[in-house]
């Protein structure tokens, strides 16, 4: 869902039409009075936000949304003001478009911002109180950083990519230890025990499935 917040009806309708023609779900707002609450309640993928709005201006809306959400936000402005753009970007805007703009440029910017957002989302995996940053290879449980070995981290990633599914010991050996590993499956059990211990209370999410292997989540 893309929200378009623009008080100029002609511009708002044009942007909404162009985005809907490209297959996006779009909702329009003529002012910013209700947008913050709507973002809290709805699943919004992108916000296109005009700066000069009646009631509550775009910069104020941007700052309020950034207090609780990191959804992508593209700002629209009628002024080619460098200070305003810098202030907006430092306040959390993802991109700026100066009016008048072409629809082709707008669509291109929307696609680029959504691609960046999608890439960033894939860098993080979460389950209950477990947070993993794949790029930084960090793990947190209840906000506390947990140190894992290379193989323990890879096992946790495999769990988080297969929530609710059984992962056999052979799967672990094949995907983490490699094709040429000649040891016993017992090594998987040893690493699972260590992983559970390091994850503390979150380790209880790792369930043993008798005669099969393990899974993350309820049996």
Automatic annotation (TrEMBL):
UniProt KW Transcription keyword: yes
Annotated Response regulatory domain residues: 1-114
GO MF annotation: an example: transcription cis-regulatory region binding
InterPro entries to which the protein is assigned, alphabetical: CheY-like_superfamily, OmpR/PhoB-type_DNA-bd, Sig_transdc_resp-reg_receiver, WalR-like, WH-like_DNA-bd_sf
Entry keyword set: DNA-binding, Phosphoprotein, Transcription, Transcription regulation, Two-component regulatory system
Coiled-coil segments: none
Protein name in the entry: Response regulator transcription factor
């Amino acid at each position: 869902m893309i929200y378009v917040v623009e008080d100029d009806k002609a511009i708002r309708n044009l942007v909404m039409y162009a985005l809907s023609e490209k297959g996006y779900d779009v909702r329009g707002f003529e002012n910013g009075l209700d947008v913050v609450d709507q973002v809290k309640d709805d699943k919004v993928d992108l916000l296109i936000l005009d700066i000069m709005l009646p009631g509550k201006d775009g910069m104020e809306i941007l700052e309020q949304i950034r207090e609780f959400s990191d959804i992508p936000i593209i700002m629209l402005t009628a002024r080619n003001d460098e200070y305003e753009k810098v202030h907006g970007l430092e306040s959390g805007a993802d991109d700026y478009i100066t009016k008048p703009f072409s629809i082709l440029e707008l669509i291109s910017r929307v696609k680029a911002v959504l691609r960046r957002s999608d890439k960033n989302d894939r860098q993080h995996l979460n389950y209950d109180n477990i947070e993993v940053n794949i790029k930084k290879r960090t793990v947190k449980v209840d906000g506390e950083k947990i140190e894992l070995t290379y193989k323990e981290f890879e096992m946790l990633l495999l769990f988080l990519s297969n929530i609710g599914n059984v992962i056999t010991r052979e799967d672990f050996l094949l995907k983490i230890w490699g094709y040429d590993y000649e040891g016993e499956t017992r090594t998987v059990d040893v690493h699972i025990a260590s992983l559970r211990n390091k994850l503390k209370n979150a380790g209880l999410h790792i369930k043993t499935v008798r005669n099969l292997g393990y899974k993350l989540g309820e049996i």
